[in-house]
Amino acid sequence: MQEAEPKGLHESFLTEKRLLEQISGENLEKRLLELAEIGGLVKEVGKYVEVTRLAFTKEDLAARSYLDRLMKESGMDVEHHPFGLIGVCYGQSPELPAVMLLSHFDSVPKGGMYDGALGTIGAIEVVRLLCENKIKFARTIVVLAATAEESSRFNNGLAGSRALFHGLTDKELAAKRPGDCSLGEALCAWGFNLNDVKTPRFTKDQIHAAIELHISQNAYLEESGKGLGVVKAIAAPDRREIIIGEPINKTNVGKDGVYFEVKVKGQAGHSGATPMGRQYRADGLLPLADFLIKTTLLAGELDVQVAVDKLLVESQALNKIPGHASCLVVLSGSATRIEKAKAILKNYGQLRNKQYARPPTKFSQQAISIEEVKANPPDYFFDPASILARCKLAGQIIRIVNSVSGKYRDYQKETIVGTVTTLTQSQEGQIILGVDVRGTDELVRNHVWHEVLAKIETVNKTNVDYTINKLSGSNDPTTMDQELVRKAEAVIQNHNLGQYEITFSPAGHDSQNAARAGIPTVMFFIPSRNSGASHVPQEYSTAQDLERGAKALAALVVRLTL
Ligand SMILES: [Zn+2]
Question: Residues of the signal sequence (predicted)?
């Protein structure tokens, strides 16, 4: 039986209602698990599903092929773009600007199964049900499943949607992480033409509205007891890289010392979405920073030769709070002096452990461990004096970013977060920090950076050289379309989808690139359970949450499309 073309709000409501009744959280969870199997390790939903699906890897390719099949089965034509898939379901008036549902399908290293994936799977499910029910609608629906949203692989967040809505610059294409190829090289290796990503695929006259469904990535929504969030603004990161020291030569000094491995057990989390403070975040770099500073002092006090090497943050990414961090400390000198230094280091570790474990805290009882190791000596060392000064400054910068951002965290209700998210030691002995400062208010964010930079100048008493570069992935905060925010509220109310919160997103999203291209854009959030865990395998939303989110999405799409 053919549907009569629905007209007016009442008909629209009835169509929406019919569609919403068929949306099932269990179905969505099943699809999300299928996608999670690609690059994933599924132990137990709700407890531990680990997904690593970085842009332009074999997992990315496998995900594209899975989504291609799903989109086609759901009734869409599929276009393969270098930065993802574009599913199209034509409306009866294809000349009208389309309604777009967008999200991403790449992940951070060792992330969870909902970030990005929910918006992609949810959007495809909405179109599948529209087609299955033979509902007629006027505007074409476009499902954009983008890759390279996370900055994990190329130090370049939201690169995919930036390419799709704005086109990429040569500088953005040159973005890379140490030891990996650049974004441009990755595109070429996949056989894409770089000219195809320098101009936008979508312009504002093609798209009537863009909607993204996403997990909230923090505990706010769960704590508020509400099931949905309507996003009115997106905070954006101002990311900078701080390169400490000039290249230096390698030396053998310190090779014959006693080796200690200092390990910190923090807890990884989303650097944008996790509020400041020890009760919310256990930043693994903070205890390590204390240690770097203490070790430097030790070198002066005890007449032992101290070297620090192998600075490491496990599975680090620019948008991830460092979890596990470690370094190697080498002490050389007379046996008695080494014993004394060792005791001081251990005592200091215990003292800091007590401080970090004091409630309220996210740190475990034994955040820091110091083990003497019979490690094979590293092939080389850098001049200990230069490297120690660099370690000290790195430690101080980590502390400064944390304390200044913490001070502004609730400034005029504009939540600011700031994190040293990445730390690498180059082959030339330079220490490179990636710093991510975010907020919804550009002025406040600028203010935080200003204060951080001034404090670094003050503490850098030994005048270690350092340079600061702005990183791609930095953005201005974005406002969502207020008319769409009202419509999003209306569909939640009309369909009794429960209590909702008008909120903002501390984390960046593809939606901000759509909004900045002049396309009216809005986002729905569902709660992130497990205390808002995100970018980690504990990321979780219940089947009910998924269902409620997809219903809000479906209702708004129908209302905008008919
Ligand atoms: Zn995401």
Answer: none
Q: How far apart are CA 340 and CA 371, in angstroms?
A: 15
d(CA 384, CA 309): 9
Distance 515 CA to ligand 1 centre (A): 16
Q: What angle do CA 43, 46, 50 make, to 5 degrees?
A: 45
pLDDT score, position 378: 64
Predicted confidence at residue 272, as pLDDT, reads 86
Please give the pLDDT value at position 304: 86
Q: Could you give the CA distance from residue 102 to residue 423 in angstroms, rounded to a whole number? A: 32
Separation of CA 201 and ligand 1 centre (Å): 21
What pLDDT, on a 0 to 100 scale, did the predictor assign at position 117? 98
The predicted structure's pLDDT at residue 7: 57
Q: What's the gap between Cα 142 and its chain centre?
A: 25
Does the fold of domain 238-470 match that of domain 8-154+206-235+477-561?
no
* DSSP SS3 for 23: coil
- What would the pLDDT profile of 325-355 be if each residue is shown by its tens digit? 999 988 888 889 999 998 999 999 999 999 9
Would you tell me how many other CB atoms lie within 10 Å of the CB of residue 332? 17
The 10 Å Cβ neighbour count of residue 385 is 15
Q: What is the CA(213)–ligand 1 centre distance, in A?
A: 10
Q: Spell out the residues 6+ positions from residue 31 whose beta carbon is closer than 8 angstroms to its own.
A: 70, 121, 124, 125
146 closest CA partner among 548, 512, 435, 545? 512
Residue in 274, 287, 312, 294 with CA at minimum distance from that of residue 364: 287
User: How far, in Å, is the centroid of ligand 1 from the Cα of 194?
Assistant: 25
Evaluate whether 310 touches 350 at the Cβ level (below 8 Å).
no
Question: Ligand 1 centroid to 509 CA: how many Å?
Answer: 6
Collect residues with CB below 5 Å from ion ligand 1: 115-116
Cβ 489 vs Cβ 500: under 8 Å: yes
Write out pLDDT tens, residues 128-171.
Answer: 999 999 999 999 999 999 999 998 899 888 999 999 999 999 99
What residues in the chain have per-residue pLDDT under 70? Answer: 1-7, 252-255, 375-380, 411-414
Amino acid letter, 20? L
Token readout for 392 is: 């000290």
CA of 103 from ligand 1 middle (Å) equals 7
Does the 238-470 domain belong in CATH 3.40.430.10? no
- What are the boundaries of each domain within the chain? 8-154+206-235+477-561, 238-470
Contact 135, 15 (CB under 8 A): yes
Q: Could you please state the CATH topology (level 3) that the domain comprising 8-154+206-235+477-561 is classified under.
A: Aminopeptidase (3.40.630)
**pLDDT, mean over the chain:** 92
Spacing, Cα 54 to ligand 1 middle (Å): 13
Whole-number Å distance between alpha carbons of 254 and 338: 13
Residue 376 confidence (pLDDT): 67
